[in-house]
Amino acid sequence: MTAAAGSLRMKQTIRDLDIRGKRVLIRADFNVPLDPKTGAITDDTRIRESLPTIRYCLEQGAAVVLMSHLGRPDGKRVPAYSLKPVADRLAELLRRPVKFLSDCIGPEVEAQATSMKPGEVALLENLRFYAEEERNDPTFAKALSPLGQIYVNDAFGTAHRAHASTAGVARFLPAVAGFLMDKEIRYLEGALANPVRPYVAILGGAKVSDKIGVISRLLEKVDRLLLGGGMSYTFLKSQGHAIGSSRLEAEKVGLAKELLAQAARRKVKVLLPVDHVVTDALKQPDSQVKTVSAGKIPDGWEGVDIGPETIKTFTAALADAKTVVWNGPVGVFEDSRFAAGSRRIAEALANLKGAVTVIGGGDSAACVQQFKLADRMTHISTGGGASLEFLEGKTLPGIAALADKPANASSTPAVASSSR
User: Which of 21, 141, 239, 316 has a 20 to 30 Å separation from 199 between CA atoms?
Assistant: First the structure.
């Protein structure tokens, strides 16, 4: 069954269960960036996103046990990846104590969890200190299960991984979605299943290979497809354009040509860059930079952003859009010299009236946040890889493991208007 199939549209949420007096085990996504020197949290967005579900549980008279991973400790106890800073920040945001448990399984942790009273909050230590977490080891999943009486997955960013805390533990407890997970499903599914038109998708990023499934799926749905970023040069090469030293996946040129032919058959308008900002040394701050027309990128130069004519063309194609999905920046936006294209697209989306704008997490989310436009988007996904796989139509294990709503429950509504 694909992610767009009926059962995935209708997952039970925490509202569907009586949680009063219960211990609720919540899988959150607290994989936050840390300052390598001080260990301080540099962006607490993911912690803030978890607050509605946590607060609801507390208001309903439940005790809350939270679990998450942080970084890639590869199954070893690495102090730099401890979740203790997250517990401290969460306590500040909740304005109540958050007990930090020094492990995530074992008799001591189980005793501390089972003795919790309604209204109390605890955070387990990093799940990935155990290699069994990423292996979805059933013994590890079973060891987590006594910590709660109800399981809630609110970590969309890891929903595409079949790990012990995202899929395994759901076999041992009643399993439902948190509010963030539910919101992600509704907006992404709405964009796929019942979009208001015109429906425009913007795809960027580095590699065609990362986006093949998404492009094929979106060509069945969208009215227009805008292609930028490093991946666009493989498409341009397939049309015979000179791309200089721009990023190229030579083995995907034939596939790019076929995808463009598929779009033509489906009468989907595909827009590729007509001019480019190029540089002779991307990583050098004093490198040469110039703008050239499509097909005229010199040898030794690489495309790093869409040019001014492409910005005009792309923003014009967005002007009447009612549903927009954006996954992947159209330039190397981290460098201010190559950020104009992505910034102008973000501004165009922010200024759309009555449209639903869904940003597909990862670099796209970082992009709109950098330009301080995040609050003017309808929905910013918290999972780059997960949103990509959802849009491809893949089954996400962390969603599939959750209980379905009854068959007579209302289906996912059309994503009809912005809630901005």
Answer: 239
